[in-house]
Specification:
This protein is α+β, with helices and mostly antiparallel strands. The protein contains 12 helices and 26 strands. It binds flavin-adenine dinucleotide and iron/sulfur cluster.
């Protein structure tokens, strides 16, 4: 407790409870601060999580339509962004693959030279990995073995690896589905059950095996005093009148995110703020606050350098396959088909077939009208040649049991910009819109791999329908928008995540990441947040005067 600051409701308010937000909450509570965490999404328990993706109202997040789940899709001209929205942020829906980024990501971007990243980051990666319970996947399902077979046939079998995941697994020789008292935090954490390999990680783990943040960082933060406000959306953050740079504290306004009417507006005060609403969430919130005049000094670099890991979702469907391809963990293994291109085998649990409505027959060729024409031709030709089989692979039922998603990621540079503009079709208010060059939706080598995969198993190679029709890739790994840089001319925060232009304001989420990681980002976001929080002193030593440093 910090008695000096009793005139404020909290010392710190953390906006968002995902990877960055949970680290911030836990570490700040440890240092003696009074912390509140505002989270727009709901709190989930094994009893409330949906059994399959057909229970749309408990899977998708679109509260105005009565959908109050934990998985959100945002559609932009350049990209469809998938992200989590829950107490525990993206960890509730994520596939728990936790890989460190290759060292080269610290070179040649806006964060280069601002810290000795290569020397500093390993210790924070190690802490993040320990806290998230990272271990090598021991549960290889049939989809992983098929990935290995295809990689062998494609000459890249030697790159096959089992993913590192945040899952509590049984020890070799022991049976799964066994409950133990806290195995991770010396008895401080909740009891846990070993993984069944049901493939359900992305629908939320109903067995207590996935190391979601509400069972780790956030659990510890709450246990030691952090106050968590679920279904609470932050709508305003502005400096208290005594100092326009936030040196005298902030006012944070919220509404109930799941209410239509009676939105229960509330106002809190605090000395410092940690924005951790995700790459998209923080960027959007800061655009709103800049426009409103609440935070006019935010850098005009806001929204720039948004990266999507250059992803393409393809796959193969094997109607009537003799094994259940949904068995295993959500992402059990991966291969590198060349120096830049990484493919992971991904699955949904049995019965979660709703995504099947977005998959269609794989079509090669440069994106655009010609590819759409080719796709129509392929579908018609397939119907004429194998009407029953084609119908079978295009209808969603049984999809999760018969489908292997191949998530292809490239560590090649490609970025877009998010802007706050009035779209031509609705000039009455501003929205977040994407601008810039097209992000590739067609990775020829990945398509070849999917074709080989299907050939070996007698299945059909498949693509995502929006990628073909609209030339818009989907990504679950949106990063950037408020990147780390030397000054507000090049980014939004400094190397300690302090927001340029404001005091005691930090950003701890995927928006600060300044390079395309080429791997799933959550471990890096966690490690960066650990590093940022390590610079904040214990409450007794805090002078509440922390401002970003500007390098010339
Ligand atoms: C289906 C799926 C699978 C994935 N699998 C993996 C994987 O295997 N490995 C991996 O590394 N990554 C994976 N990811 C990506 C991963 O989930 C994100 O990279 C990660 O969660 C980002 O962390 P973050 O701290 O930036 O924010 P998040 O974890 O997204 O948390 C931000 C939180 O802020 C809340 N919020 C937003 N705006 C407000 C507001 N105004 N007021 C209050 N709260 C707000 C949101 O509701 C959200 O809960 C996956 C994502 C998806 C969707
Ligand atoms: S495979 Fe099933 S039991 Fe294991 S972590 Fe994922 S959802 Fe939980």
């Amino acid at each position: 407790m910090s008695p000096r600051n009793k005139q404020f409701d909290f010392d710190f308010i953390v906006v968002g409870s995902g990877f960055g937000g949970s680290v911030a909450a836990h570490r700040l509570v440890e240092k003696g601060y009074r912390v509140a965490v505002m989270e727009m999404g709901r709190r989930w328990t094994p009893e409330t999580l949906p059994r399959t993706s057909w229970t749309l109202r408990r899977w998708l997040w679109r509260p105005k339509l009565g959908l109050r789940g934990f998985f959100n899709m945002r559609f932009f001209r350049h990209v469809t962004i998938f992200h989590g929205c829950a107490v525990g942020g993206g960890s509730i829906t994520y596939a728990c693959t936790l890989l460190p980024a290759p060292e080269k990501v610290w070179e040649a971007k806006s964060w280069t030279g601002l810290a000795n990243w290569k020397a500093e980051m390993p210790q924070y990666y190690a802490t993040a990995a320990r806290m998230l319970g990272v271990t090598e996947n021991k549960i290889l399902g049939p989809a992983d073995l098929l990935l290995k077979r295809t990689a062998d046939a494609a000459g890249s079998g030697h790159t096959f690896y089992c993913t590192n995941v945040g899952i509590f697994q049984a020890r070799t020789g022991e049976t799964s589905n066994q409950t133990f008292s806290d195995p991770f935090f010396g008895g401080e954490g909740p009891q846990r059950t070993t993984c069944l390999g049901c493939g359900g990680c992305m629908m939320g783990c109903r067995f207590g095996a996935k190391n979601t943040l509400d069972l780790g960082y956030l659990y510890l933060a709450e246990k030691h005093g952090a106050q968590l406000f679920p279904e609470t959306q932050v709508t305003n953050v502005r400096p208290l009148p005594a100092a326009s740079d936030g040196g005298a504290g902030y006012e944070v306004c919220t509404v109930k995110s799941t209410a239509w009417i009676r939105r229960q507006s509330r106002r809190f005060t605090c000395r410092g703020v940690v924005l951790a609403a995700s790459a998209l969430g923080t960027t959007e919130l800061l655009f709103r606050l800049k426009e409103k005049g609440s935070l006019p000094g935010i850098s005009s670099e806001l929204g720039k350098h948004v990266r999507t890991n250059s992803e393409s979702l393809i796959g193969a469907r094997m109607p009537g396959y003799h094994e259940d391809l949904s068995q295993g963990i959500a992402i059990g293994s991966g291969v590198y088909i060349d120096e830049h291109t990484h493919i992971e085998a991904v699955r949904y649990p049995r019965g979660s077939d709703a995504m099947g409505m977005l998959t269609t027959i794989l079509t090669n060729g440069r994106p655009g009208p010609r590819r759409i024409g080719l796709w129509v031709r392929n579908v018609i030709a397939s119907f004429l040649r194998h009407p029953f089989h084609t119908l079978r692979v295009l209808q969603p039922w049984g999809w999760a049991r018969e489908f292997v998603i191949l998530l292809c990621m490239q560590a090649l540079e490609s970025q877009i910009e998010m802007r706050w503009e009035r779209p031509w079709f609705w000039p009455f208010r501003k929205f977040l819109v994407s601008r810039g060059g097209k992000v590739p939706t067609y990775i020829p080598k990945a398509n070849e791999f999917a074709q080989k995969f299907a050939q070996l198993t007698g299945g059909f190679p498949m693509s995502m329908l929006p990628e073909i029709l609209f030339n818009v890739p989907g990504t679950a790994h949106c990063i950037g928008g408020c990147v780390i840089a030397d000054s507000s001319n090049h980014g939004v925060v400094d190397s300690r995540h302090r927001v340029f232009g404001y005091k005691n304001m930090y950003i701890c989420d995927g928006s600060v990441v300044a390079a395309n990681l080429g791997v799933n980002p959550s471990l890096t976001i966690t490690a960066l947040a650990e590093r940022a929080m390590s610079f904040i002193p214990p409450v007794a030593e805090c002078t509440w005067n922390d401002a970003a440093s500007i390098r010339s």
